[in-house]
Amino acid sequence: MKIQQLKGARIRKQLSQGTNEQREAVISILNQVKEQGDTALFELTGKFDGAQLDDLKVTDVEIEKAYASLDVEVIDVIREAAANIKAYHKKQIQESWITTKKDGTVLGQKVTPLDSVGVYVPGGTAAYPSSVLMGTIPASVAGVERIAIATPPRADGSISASVLVAANESGVSEIYKIGGAQAVGAFTFGTESVAPVDKIVGPGNIYVALAKREVFGIVGIDMIAGPSEIMIYADETAKPAYLAADLLSQAEHDQMATSILVTTSIEVAEETSKEVIRQLESLPRKEIAEASIISNGVIYIANTEEEAINAINEVAPEHLEIVAHEPFELLGQIKHAGAIFLGKNSSEPVGDYFAGPNHVLPTSGTARFSSPLGVDDFIKKSSIISYGTDALYNDGRKISKLARLEGLEAHARAIDIRLEEE
Question: Briefly, what is this protein's role (predicted)?
């Protein structure tokens, strides 16, 4: 990994907007799905995934076979991870509330779950049961009645057994063999087989991200996700072998993933760089991880801890690890990060898979204004207002004055007519 001084480095990363060609391709796919429905989905699945399907929806028989094919210990691990995720997200539940004033005014907020949600789960050659759990369980905790999953099939038309088991354990009854921008189109416009949803969540490639951007406004979306990223702050007490392993855990996602280490120790920087090279040699996904490290991997040497913290807040990383002697002492200084992992044993995969917090996180600096996926993404809030006679008498002329200040006479008269009657 390349090593350079932090001071003067430009390190903020912007979310990719995609190329004009990619955006045009996405718009074409969305229009095709909108106009042709299932016919488009079958055609596009054959074109992009190489699968010739007879049915888009996963059957109960396929789910039964998935359970039979998995080791019991694997199923137990999925269930325990699901329980941890559910317990964590239950703490995010918001309740409706009402408050009253002496003059009879009643104000409040009504919290209502969304009716339906579509969860996109990356797939094809890879399997991401963790993404199933992270996308569906917060929706279930929020009270969403209909939760559907779309994931690209393998060339033989199958879906990973672990994905199917995770979906079933989450209580999901609708699982569709659809990937890419066409899945976003199906959830947005609906087809003969897929009913439209109110919101689409979940990570995907650039085509999924661009498709979500295009349909926002017709449906809700959680966020526009970019390539995965990790940033680690380490002091002189950190173990280079641990740091290298954590940097590579992100690099193996894809060639566009970003892995950054910031340290105040030259020795830690140099030893970590050597460890990355050494550990790369035995990685099954070496080609991907190596390309990521070469393109987007860097070790910065900071002159001071303050300089390192400022850099972290500027990057606003998706995953942030603080591997220092007293990591909790630094927590208060962190303003922008999707997920914060504190201490040498809190490796990023702990959060990705098992601890409970969500791993669908803001990327590319969007942690400056965005949050991890959670229960709040699956609810909406309605304001409640009730004015009695005394309240309107006390506030009416003030309301009229504000309306006329904005040149909206009809607004003012709607109040005045009630005051005149009283």
Answer: Catalyzes the sequential NAD-dependent oxidations of L-histidinol to L-histidinaldehyde and then to L-histidine.
Q: How far apart are CA 270 and CA 40, in angstroms?
A: 53
359 is in an annotated binding site: no
The 10 Å CB-count burial string (b at 16+, else e) for 191-208 is bebbebbbbbbbbbbbbb
- Residue-wise pLDDT for 351-393, tens only, equals 999 999 999 999 999 999 999 999 999 999 999 999 999 999 9
Q: Which CATH number fits domain 20-93+114-221: 3.40.50.1980, 3.50.50.60, 3.40.50.300, 1.10.287.950?
A: 3.40.50.1980
Q: Is 182 annotated as a binding residue?
A: yes
pTM across the whole model: 0.92
Locate CATH 3.40.50.1980 in the chain.
2-15+227-355, 20-93+114-221
DSSP string, 283-332: -TTHHHHHHHHHHHEEEEEPSSHHHHHHHHHHH--SEEEEESSSTHHHHT
Residues catalogued as catalytic: 318-319
Q: What is the dotted CATH code of the domain comprising 2-15+227-355?
A: 3.40.50.1980
Q: Is 325 annotated as a binding residue?
A: no
**Beta carbons within 8 Å of 118's beta carbon, 6+ residues apart:** 148, 149, 150, 183, 187, 197, 199, 200, 201, 219
